[in-house]
Structure formats: structure tokens, C-alpha cells
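Standup notes
- DV: blocked on the single-chain target, sequence here:
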Amino acid sequence: MKKLVLIKEIYLEGFRNLGHFLIQKYFKVFAWFSFIMFFIVLYAFVYRIATGFAFD
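- DV (later): unblocked, structure below
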């Protein structure tokens, strides 16, 4: 739980006093998009390992 609060605080601190409203929203959307893409890649990798895919 402590790590989750720390990650939340780092996320909020990263966007505090960033500047213009549109820039702030753009970077928030980009950050969430990056998180989602990372988890999709992680899922695909774990799926390939679980199904016995040969990484030749």
C-alpha cells in the first residue's frame, strides 16, 4: 500500500505546475496511453512464455 501511495504522489507531482491546460491534459493522456501499451506488451510476453513459444 505504501508503494501505491508513493507512485500516486510521483504521478501527481509530475503534473503539478506543468503549464498550459492543454499541455497538461496531453501529457496525462500520453502517460496513460504509455501505461496501457506497456501492460499489453507485458501480457503478450507472459502469454507467449505460458504457451511455450520458441524465441528463435
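- Follow-up: The two ends are 40 Å apart (CA to CA).
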